[in-house]
Design goal:
alpha+beta, N-terminal domain of MutM-like DNA repair proteins, Helicase, Ruva Protein, domain 3, 9-stranded antiparallel β-sheet, two-stranded antiparallel sheet, globular, DNA-binding
DNA sequence: CTTGGGTCCTGTGCGC
DNA sequence: TGCGCACAGGACCCAA
């Protein structure tokens, strides 16, 4: 799944198309994603203006000129695609879209008043969309317990220290817990721990404050770099097919089992272990 | 409360 | 080339 940087990149790509624009047509090609769509999904969204498009953790939030906010989560395999109408300048009233792509997993299609078409694809359907009352959004179960945004000032070593206090699980598992910090996933947790040279497995409660400071620094750094890389991917995509979702990024440990560790290539070899059902990639030599 | 395991769904890539 | 299996970026639920 798209983690924080990918969701942020998607937000950045969709914002110019959606923010301030009216949804002229909304199509739900099936009644459910991970969960059933609300009965009034199409009815509420049709004619609504997206006033702002924001991100919280891995959620996309489209505020509407309605009581509700459209909440979207991409799950593991969700992505968006933007198709811009051509011939608008000629004002001929005839729009030519990119060819209708792989309709099999095109589950939701938004078309703006200007004729831009935003399609949500999700083969595995772990993603979901819902309409949530904007005034009480922060009380909703999806948001009430979320930890701080890792790029905000609310996230620091002091806060991590107290979250890790007395915990016997490794930091790998705990950093995936959205209640501790919101937006990290399997890839960026592995990357940040490698950069901070911290073992994914040793009890989190025993990690010293200075090492947590380093961890916070590296979490911020890896996310910031990935968002920047996503932004540049976005500019490339803008000229091609408008696909928004995953982007190619050179990871230091993720999916690099057997390759030399970037921290000390002559000594460390990246290993993979299954931890709490998820693959952990790490360097046994430098992550202690 | 903490922890580990199973679950949803489909596609891809690997070894044989 | 075909087949079966392991695995995939998330997050919820439940049992111990």
């Amino acid at each position: 799944m798209p983690e924080l940087p990918e969701v942020e990149t998607v937000r950045g790509g969709l914002a110019p198309v959606l923010e301030g624009h009216r949804l002229a047509r909304v199509e739900a090609r099936r009644p459910d994603l991970r969960f059933p769509l609300p009965e009034n999904f199409v009815q509420v969204l049709t004619g609504a203006i997206v006033t702002r498009l924001e991100r919280r953790a891995k959620y996309l939030l489209a505020a509407l000129d309605r009581e509700d906010t459209l909440v979207m989560h991409l799950g593991m395999s969700g992505r968006f695609e933007i198709a811009h109408p051509e011939g608008v300048a000629e004002r001929l009233g005839q729009f030519h879209y990119a060819p209708e792509p792989d309709a099999k997993h095109a589950h939701i299609v938004f078309t703006t008043e200007e004729g831009a078409r935003v399609t949500y694809y999700d083969p595995r359907r772990f993603g979901y969309m819902a309409l949530v009352n904007t005034a009480t959004l922060h009380l909703h179960p999806w948001f009430a317990g979320l930890g701080p945004e890792p790029l905000s000032d609310d996230f620091d070593a002091t806060r991590l220290k107290s979250a890790f206090k007395d915990r016997k699980q490794g930091p790998k598992t705990l950093l995936l817990d959205q209640r501790i910090v919101a937006g990290l996933g399997n890839i960026y947790v592995c990357e940040a721990l490698n950069r901070a040279r911290i073992s994914p497995f040793k009890p989190a409660g025993g990690i010293s404050k200075p090492r947590l400071e380093k961890l916070v620094t590296e979490i911020r750094a890896v996310l910031t770099e990935a968002i920047a890389a996503g932004g540049s991917t976005l500019r490339d995509f803008a000229q091609t097919d408008g696909a928004l979702g995953y982007f190619q990024h050179r990871f230091r440990v993720y999916d690099r089992e057997g390759e030399p560790c970037a921290n000390d290539p002559s000594v460390g070899v990246i290993a993979r272990k299954v931890q709490a059902g998820r693959s952990t990639f790490y360097c046994p030599a430098c992550q202690t």
